[in-house]
């Protein structure tokens, strides 16, 4: 069977003509290629029909195999079955092989075509990538060109109006440049070049003139340097004349030389106070105290001390090896450094008409960036210190509340609290005795202003970075000086009244003459005893209290008065609280007449003010208090159960002893009629 099938197999046809391009391999163009006859037949046959023929052949084969199986099962002779199978297998095998070859040829052609299309696509893709790369390169070049900045763009050219107005026509060429921006820019650059050439020539001329002027200045400097010794000798010779004429020019010059080393706040205070003293207040004296050498050392550049620091490194290392300071010692050192004052201070002396002097010493705390003040009073005559005078002239309370709410116990700089936390300082009030009081008005006199509503970030200020406002100092100088002088006079008057209003039975010079004339029976003869402030409970607020007691002869009637004095006396009047010990304890809570007596001195104080500025108000209130005490005692009804005369006979003239359901007594004094009536 194999021989028969080999006979029926078609031989391969080899042709010498060139096959299609798809059949040619790479590098094989000169070799012979085998070519099958079915290759030409593939293009002529319909693949769908071949597929249908192949399917029919397979179905016929299945049918034939089924018949052979059926014949075999019937017992048909084997020769019949074999002949039928050989007949069919020869025809079907030939057709099926041909169809298989055609299918393989079609597949190969399809692969070749796909390969050729793929090569074309790859070639197109490579060409596309090349084009995209060229586009990207061109875009980069375009961007570079667009972003290119010419040097002329950095040149500030004159405006177009000025260019066409000042440039000559041969440069401006309006007929061309107005239509072409490029030519316009070139023309403006040409005009700029011409102008710069002119300016360069002018610059050379100015340099020549400058050198000439510098030579003249050097000659004048030599003349002035030789003149300085002569001026010094003249100033030295004129010192007796200056002292005789009260014109201390030399002393003022030295003061201004020293002022150069003051920190900015103290310098502003010195300048503004000196200017105010020269212009408005001849009794205001400003001076500078302290070590100038220490002040100069603060401003030395750090380079000057590098050698000293390097030389002392070994000593510091040895010291640290020997002994390490404890934590407490370190904190003490840090506190001292934090509270360090500037070596120089400014002193201001305020003189009054009676030759009393208020000495103010202003210091600057360098690390806290605040100013402090210390006060001291020098009186023309030696003053006796009375218990009732209290601490009126104490440096710690003399300037309290010069402005409302300014106690001088806390630092006005919000940044200081952060600095205090670093070194364990709770409040600055523990150090005001040594450093002085940091009042807000002191900061304003030095040109310092601190915000109240928001804290500042912590930093350590330095004397080189502090800024002080001259206008702020000038705007507060006049009012502050007036308040300081008024405070000194009022405190001296209070001190005098406290010292003179002790146990006095006759009119004392400290009592108001106007009120003396209003009393028809003269001053009361009640002896006033004096008690210490500590005998009364402390009264809240920034007010001091002075207490006094009164008794009438040896009779058992004692009036105790607690007096609250505001630091702003006499603008703000004293306030009295009374307690009468007579037939029991009587005060404003259980006796309406005691309340009326308090009203006479607390509410109607304007009647007792006297001549301005009203420094005798306290004395006048005490005198009026004695008068209403007499009225109170004399108008008390006599107890019929007690034999003998009335305890306090009536001496004051009263229109009506009592009035109203509260049975109030007549405490209002009518001058000059000389009688008492109800209000």
From TrEMBL:
Give start-end positions of Acidic residues composition bias: 304-317
- One GO BP: mRNA export from nucleus
Q: Name one GO molecular function term.
A: mRNA binding
Subcellular location(s) of the protein: Nucleus
Q: Which residues form a coiled coil?
A: none
Per its UniProt record, what Pfam families does this chain match?
Answer: FmiP_Thoc5
Please give the InterPro entries that the UniProt record associates with this protein: THO_Thoc5
The protein's UniProt keywords, in alphabetical order, are: Nucleus
An annotated GO cellular component of this protein is:
THO complex part of transcription export complex
UniProt feature, compositional bias: Basic and acidic residues: 14-41
Domain of life the protein comes from: Eukaryota
- Region annotation Disordered: residue ranges? 1-41, 297-327
Tell me which family the UniProt entry assigns to this protein: Belongs to the THOC5 family.
What is the name listed in the Swiss-Prot or TrEMBL entry for this protein?
A: THO complex subunit 5
Q: Which organism was this protein described from? A: Manacus vitellinus (golden-collared manakin)
Q: What does the organism's lineage look like at the top? A: Eukaryota, Metazoa, Chordata, Craniata, Vertebrata
């Amino acid at each position: 069977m194999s021989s028969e099938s080999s006979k029926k197999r078609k031989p391969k046809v080899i042709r010498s003509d060139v096959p299609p391009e798809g059949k040619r391999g790479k590098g094989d163009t000169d070799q012979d290629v085998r070519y099958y006859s079915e290759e030409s037949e593939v293009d002529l046959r319909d693949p769908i029909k071949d597929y249908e023929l192949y399917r029919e052949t397979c179905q016929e084969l299945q049918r034939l195999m089924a018949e052979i199986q059926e014949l075999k099962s019937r017992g048909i002779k084997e020769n019949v079955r074999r002949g039928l199978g050989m007949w069919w297998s020869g025809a079907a095998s030939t057709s099926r092989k041909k169809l298989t070859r055609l299918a393989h040829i079609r597949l190969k052609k399809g692969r070749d075509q796909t390969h050729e299309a793929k090569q074309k696509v790859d070639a197109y893709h490579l060409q596309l990538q090349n084009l995209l790369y060229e586009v990207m390169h061109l875009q980069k070049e375009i961007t570079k060109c667009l972003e290119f900045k010419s040097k002329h763009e950095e040149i500030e050219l004159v405006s177009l109006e000025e260019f066409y107005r000042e440039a000559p026509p041969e440069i401006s060429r309006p007929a061309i440049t107005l239509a072409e921006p490029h030519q316009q820019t070139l023309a403006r650059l040409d005009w700029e070049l011409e102008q710069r050439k002119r300016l360069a020539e002018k610059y050379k001329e100015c340099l020549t003139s400058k050198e000439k002027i510098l030579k003249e200045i050097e000659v004048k400097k030599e003349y002035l340097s030789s003149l300085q010794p002569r001026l010094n000798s003249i100033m030295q010779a004129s010192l007796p004349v200056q002292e005789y004429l009260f014109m201390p020019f030399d002393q003022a010059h030295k003061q201004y030389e020293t002022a150069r080393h003051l920190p900015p706040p103290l310098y502003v205070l010195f300048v503004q106070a000196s200017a105010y003293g020269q212009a408005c207040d001849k009794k205001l004296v400003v001076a500078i105290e302290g070590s100038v050498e220490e002040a100069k050392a603060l401003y030395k550049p750090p380079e000057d001390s590098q050698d000293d620091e390097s030389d002392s490194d070994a000593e510091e290392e040895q010291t640290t090896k020997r002994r390490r300071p404890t934590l407490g010692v370190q904190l003490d050192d840090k506190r001292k450094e934090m509270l360090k004052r500037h070596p120089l201070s400014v002193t201001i002396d305020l003189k009054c008409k009676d030759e009393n002097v208020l000495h103010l010493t202003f210091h600057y705390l360098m690390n806290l960036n605040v100013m402090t003040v210390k006060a001291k009073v020098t009186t023309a005559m030696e003053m006796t210190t009375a218990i009732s005078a209290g601490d009126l002239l104490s440096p710690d309370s003399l300037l309290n509340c010069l402005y409302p709410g300014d106690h001088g116990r806390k630092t006005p700089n919000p940044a200081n609290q952060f600095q205090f936390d670093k070194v364990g300082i709770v409040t600055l009030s523990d150090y005001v005795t040594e450093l002085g009081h940091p009042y807000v008005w002191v900061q304003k006199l030095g040109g310092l202003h601190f915000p109240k509503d928001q804290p500042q970030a912590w930093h350590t200020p330095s004397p080189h970075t502090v800024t002080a406002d001259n206008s702020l100092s000038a705007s507060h100088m006049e009012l502050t000086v007036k308040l300081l002088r008024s405070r000194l006079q009022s405190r001296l008057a209070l001190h005098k009244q406290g010292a003179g209003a002790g146990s006095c039975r006759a009119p004392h010079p400290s009592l108001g003459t106007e009120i003396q004339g209003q009393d028809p029976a003269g001053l009361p003869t009640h002896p006033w005893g004096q008690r210490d402030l500590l005998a009364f409970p402390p009264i809240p607020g920034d007010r001091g209290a002075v207490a006094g007691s009164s008794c009438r002869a040896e009779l058992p009637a004692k009036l105790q008065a607690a007096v609250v004095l505001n630091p702003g006396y006499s603008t703000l009047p004293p306030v009295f609280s009374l307690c009468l010990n007579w037939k029991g304890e009587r005060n404003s809570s259980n006796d309406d007449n005691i309340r009326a007596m308090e009203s006479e001195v607390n509410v109607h104080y304007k009647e007792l003010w006297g001549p301005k500025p009203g420094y005798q108000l306290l004395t006048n209130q005490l005198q009026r208090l004695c008068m209403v005490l007499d009225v109170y005692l004399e108008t008390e009804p006599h107890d019929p159960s007690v034999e003998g005369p009335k305890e306090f006979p009536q001496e004051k003239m009263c229109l009506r002893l009592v009035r109203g359901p509260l049975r109030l007594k007549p405490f209002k004094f009518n001058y000059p009629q000389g009688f008492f009536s109800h209000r």
